[in-house]
Design brief:
mainly alpha, 274 residues, single chain
Length: 274
Amino acid sequence: MPRSLLVISSIACTMAFGGSASPLHALPNGRGASLSSNPSTAASDEWTAGFVFQSSPARAPKRRGRDPKRNQARKSQTALLATKLHGGESPPASGPATALGAAASAWGALGVLYILLNPVKRLLPIALLPLKGGAAALGPAGWCAYAGFVCFMAFFEGYKGFQCKFSPMVVARAATLEIGPSAGGPGWWIKALLAPVYSMGLFHATRKRLATSWGMLIGISAIVAICKRVPQPWRSVIDGGVVVGLTWGSLSVGAIYLSSKLRGNPPPLDPQLP
C-alpha cells in the first residue's frame, strides 16, 4: 500500500477513535512503528506514524466552586488595605478598633443609601400623579413616553450605572474603613466622620474617580433642578424615570453591603484610592 494511503488511514482511525493509538503500530512509548521496509524512508515513516497515533493528553477536569487561594486572598483584602493606606499593620482581630471600623463602614454604605433615597422621597408624589389621574392623565403618547423613560432609566442608570459600577465601589471603599483608627492613622477619623462622602469617592480617590463621582453628583443635582421647571405632564414622566433609577441604585447599595457582610469579605473591586 502506498505510504500516503497509510497516512490517510491513520488520520481517519485517529479521528474515529478519539486519538487513540492503534495496537498494531503503537509502541509503548507512544510512537508508531516503521511503515516502510525501505531504510531511507523508515525514519520518516516512524516520525509520521508517531505524530498521527500519539494520543492527545487527557484534559484535567474542571474545578468547580471557588478557588481556596482566591477566597483566602479576598478575605484578607481589608487587612492588606492598611498597608496600602498608611503603611500600618493589619487590624486586630477584635477589640474597640474593630468595632469602630465596622461602625464607620456601615455609616459609609448606609449613608450613601440615605443620600440616594432623599430625592426619591421628594419626587415620588409627582411621579405618581399620572397613575392617580387614570389613563386620561397622559394619553397614549404620554403613557408610551412614561413607560419608555422608566425602562431607560432603570437599565442605564439603575443597572448599568449603579448596580454594576457605583454601588460595588461604594461598598468597597466603605470596607477600607474597617481597619480602624489604630491602623488607619489620624486621617482615618476624617474619613470615618465623612464616611458617606468618602465612600462615594468625592475625596481621597484617584483623579478619574474624583471626576466621575463629582460629575455624577452634579448631573443628578442638575436633573432634579431641571425637573422642577418642566411643566406637567412631562415633569411626571421625567420624575418617574429618576425615581426608578435612584431607587434601583439605593437598593443595590444596600443589597451589596448586606451580601458582603454575610460573605465576610468586600466586593472584589478596586476602591480606587490615590
